[in-house]
């Protein structure tokens, strides 16, 4: 299967490694900044491989290499939707880095066009493939939790000014969003995937407390209501000095409780069920070691996507999953903007509508549509 990568920045190395791990034929790499693609290849000792084509224009890449089967989009968040839609039109299967898009409208357009063209689209929520997360999902599917009560996700990380200086798009409403959209969206995806019910209402609040040089939030909190009566809380921050502390998940039912911890939700910290099984002793000691907060899931996600393409099935982290995680973040933003809870499904809303939310003199209140008074 011939593979291409668009975007050669911070996360690109994980994608190249995953592609190599899964035996994909690396055909082309593309980045709008000259030299970035070459720098990325050099990290893998591939700089002398002339069979890997370098581009600064992905449209030219597709014109010259129509044989590309699978493409990963790892560009700035604000360009994900535009590039994804172009890939779909080119007939190329897709892995999109999170978030899938910056607006509900764009996310739903990706879903619609991919179905129309018969294109497989996955979103890079790679933590679904953590061993600990997979174990919790199996327990939930087997009904071991009984009646769920509540859940929680806490992403307590740190980012300083040097992180935001890496690229001009970081921390901006139209191209990135803040800690919820960029860092916490992985945990949000896991929370709603493990809880299993549809989110019906979101109460949210965000602040910018320690990063005055960015537009978006560095702390966000929310309460979710689900259709089955369960509730959950979200905490996401990049203010936890002096470094990343943890990403924890909690799922509580009347017959089971699980807490997952570690820097990126890879360690079982509590595994208690009324119906004890022989494998519980092993599962309760799961502590998957990772080199960084991105975890080990990229290669596993790639393997799932490749299999999904070949078998004609939906991947585990499909475009709908990406849309659902995005919707929660945007609903939190909307709740901050209006000062009110937000009912789902969310009508079209974009992170760009949050511009100026932290400006001096901004008043939080209900949005007034044109023509209303």
Compact overview of the structure:
The chain is an alpha/beta fold. It contains eleven helices and 14 strands.
Task: Kindly describe this structure.
This protein is α/β, with parallel strands linked by helices and 373 residues long. It has 2 domains: 2-126 and 298-317, 3-Layer(aba) Sandwich (Rossmann fold), CATH 3.40.50; 131-297, 2-Layer Sandwich (Dihydrodipicolinate Reductase, domain 2). It contains 11 helices and 14 strands. The protein has helices at residues 12-21, 36-43, 58-64, 80-89, 104-117, 131-141, 161-164, 179-195, 280-283, 297-311, 319-338, and strands at residues 2-6, 25-30, 53-55, 70-73, 93-96, 121-123, 148-156, 199-207, 219-226, 231-237, 246-253, 256-261, 267-273, 342-343. An 8-stranded mixed sheet has the order 13-12-11-7-10-9-8-14. Strands 3-2-1-4-5-6 form a 6-stranded parallel sheet, with helices on both faces. It is globular, with a radius of gyration of 21 Å.
Largest sheet report: 8 strands, mixed
* Total number of helices: 11
Helix and strand run: EHEHEHEHEHEHEHHEEEEEEHHHE
Gyration radius from CA atoms, angstroms: 21 Å
CATH superfamily of the largest domain: Dihydrodipicolinate Reductase, domain 2
Strand order of the biggest β-sheet: 13-12-11-7-10-9-8-14
Q: Give the rounded overall mean pLDDT.
A: 95
Q: Output the structural class.
A: alpha/beta
Fraction in beta strands: 15-25%
CATH architecture of the largest domain: 2-Layer Sandwich
Stretches where pLDDT falls below 50 for ≥5 residues? 365-373
How many β-strand stretches? 14
The coarse overall form would be globular
CATH topology of the largest domain: Dihydrodipicolinate Reductase, domain 2
Count of domains? 2
